[in-house]
Each structure stands twice: as C-alpha cells, then as structure tokens.
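User: For a reading group we're discussing how well predicted structures match intuition. Take MFS transporter. Before you show the prediction, I'll give you the sequence so everyone sees exactly what went in.
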Amino acid sequence: MKEKKIHLLSAVLATGIMSFAGVLIETAMNVTFPTLIEQFGISTGMVQWVTTIYLLVISIMVPFSNYLLKNFSIRRLFVVANLFFIAGLVTDLWSPTFTILLVGRLLQGISTGIALPLMFHIILNFTPMHKRGTMMGVGTLTTSIAPAIGPTYGGIMTANLSWHAIFLFLLPVLAISLVIGLFAIPEMPVKKTGALDLISLIGIALLFSGLLLFLNQLGNWSSLISLVIGIVGLLIFYRQATRGKNPLVRITVLKNKAFVLFLCGFLVCQFLLLGISFVLPNFIQIVLGKDAFIAGLVMMPGAAVGAILAPISGRILDTFGSKKPILLGLSFAMVGWIALTLLLRSPLLLGFVAGHVFYMIGIGFSYSNLMTTGMNLLSEADYGDGNTLFNTLQQFSGAVATAIVATIINLAQQAQTDFIAATITGSQLSLLVLLGLLLAVFIACLIHFRKKPVLG
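Assistant: Thanks. Here is the predicted 3D structure of MFS transporter, as structure tokens, for the group to look at:
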C-alpha cells in the first residue's frame, strides 16, 4: 500500500494558522486589561495572569509535546490541539467570572503548546535544507508578528463590540485551520520511542510555576517560598534530564555554545515582543487616556512591516548566510527600542508608531533567523530536543517578560501617589531592563560572527 505524503505548504499553513491564533490571543488580551480590572475589580498584578497562566501552560505543554510527537501521529495531535483551542474559545466567549476566563485560557494554552512544536516539527522534518530558512521565516511569522497584531485586533474588538468578541471571531479561523489540516496531514505511522518521564514533567511544572510566582510576588516574603519551589523543580528536571532513561528533553544540546547563543538571542527577542505588547497599549490607555482601539492601532504599522519581512529575511539567510540579517536586525531593533524608551517621557502617538516600526524591522530580520541558525547547528537526531528548547523557553520567556514588566509597573504605582507619573516611571524602567538584555545579545553575536565570519 502506497504511503500517503504530507502536503507540506498546506500542513504548515494549517498548523501555522492555529499557532498564529494562539500567539495572537496572547497580546490581544493585553489591551483589555484596564477594562478587565474595572469589570472584575482586580489589580494590575492580578490581571496579567490572563496572559501569564496561558504562557505557563504552554511552557509545560511544549516539552510534553516532544514526547507526544514521538508516540502519536501528527494528524491526531493536530486534531486534538484544534479541538482544545475551540473549547477554550467557547469557554472565554461565555466567561462570566475572572476564574472561568482563566480556565478558558488554560485550555487555549494546552492547544498552543501542542500546535507550535508541531508546526516546527513539520518544517524541520519535511523541508529540504536549502529551503529551510524561508519556511522557518513563514513559521516564525506566527510568533513574531502575531504579538504585534494582537493589540490592534483586541483593541478593535473591545472598543467596538466587547472583549468577549476577541474569542468569537477566532472560532471560524480555527475551523478553517481544521479543514486545511485534515486535507494536508495524512495519518502516518509512528514508531513509538520510550515512555513518558512524568517526573521530568513535574519538575518543569514546579520550575516554571515557582519562578513566575516569585516574579509576581516580588516585594513580599511569600516570594521566597515560590523561589524555593522553582529551584526544587529545576533540580528535579536537571537530574532526570541527565540521568533518566527517557527524559522529556535531552539538554546535551546546550553543550553547543553557538546554539546557546542563538537560543538566548531568540529568547530576548521574545522578551521584547511580549514586553512592548504589554507596556505600550496600557501606557497609551492609562497615561494618554486613549481607548483600546487607538492603543491597538498604534501597533498595526509595525506588525505589517514585520509580517512582510519575516519570510523575506529567511530567503536572505538561505542566500547570504546568517551574519548580515541577524546583526542588521538587532541594530535596527536597538534603535527603535531606545526611541520608544525615550518617548515615554514625551509621549507622542506618531512617535510611538515610528519607534515601533523601526523596532519591528529589526525583529523581522533577526527573529526567525536566530532560530534557524541555532537549529542548523544541530544534528538531525537533536532536532526534537532543540525544537522543544526553543519553543518551551520561548513561551516561558514571554510569560517572564509579561510578569517582569507588570511587576515593575505595579511596584512603581504602589510607591507613588501620582498614578499617571508612576505608570510612566514603571513603563520606562521596564523598557530599560529589556534594552540591557538586547544590548548584551547584540555584543555577543557581534563577537561570535567576528570569530566565524561565515555561518549558514
């Protein structure tokens, strides 16, 4: 019997649509925070859990997906992920309380935690090497552009309809993804490899949960308990990863220093994407007094520029190598980020648009190419572990970035009586912290490429 072949472009499109919806909804909810705070009577620190719990679940699910991909067909995983997402959308469309809203976000997190590694698994295993940069550019388009489009989409829905509509209009999108996926992804046999390392999964859950709680509780003694929980989780995970028979993730790939460099660069870009998607829309609403629609609209030009550049930058990498697009991209990103940081003291909407566009030009050139370059440094046998590390830490770094900027702004608001002035101070401090990380990555990449002038 002839084995059915995967329709590569359609399969990437189907999983990409689902992943795009998952990442879009991360930041689409950010513009609703002032509305949610008022409606549910909660604080800035509490409302950010709408994003944080979602990213936390994804961070736990992605390494679990490494096991799933080795033991279940990609068609079955695709269908399960799609149905979980739809269930989460329906739950949040109805949600009358903040708790139920979080339950829906949890279901969506399970889906996205399967969809993202599934998309990159298809790209890495079915795309020829000479086309991989371009296809990775298309794939990472979902994780680089969606955070920027999210506030625009969320702002339009919230200002003209209701924040519930954010979930309503994604239902037909998921239906389209399901139809395309059922056509493009055939049922292919999977050679099951190993049992689930449940202890590793528990360790990861304790690690990520403890660290996120620690960041959210900074300033309170209870944060130390959360930090201890995170450290215990790290020790459990490390022990299993180095001594276990079937670890969820083999961390031996981290011995490759160049791979670690590009992984860190990729994660810093994710920090910035999620950080600015939290800071800027809330700043525009709280400090400038604009509505959610305007807050989202400011992000739209940058999102469009990033969307255009993502696949183009992958083609540039395929043609010229990784040095030029990565260094050029990081340079543009720094200039745009510095402009945004300075503008918080002299806010101007058009200035925010220009700074964000410049920053997104940089992300468009560097973001996907950092991941592609890092993955190209690994052997085919290590693709699964490398893919898991990129996607797991990508989502966790997004949760950490959201928690950090929310905590900095929240602490500033509590320390000053002038709420508006405190929000300005907190927003600027949070962007300065992220700028320091971006500068460190740029310097590290510059040193690396000077040592190795040619790198595919």
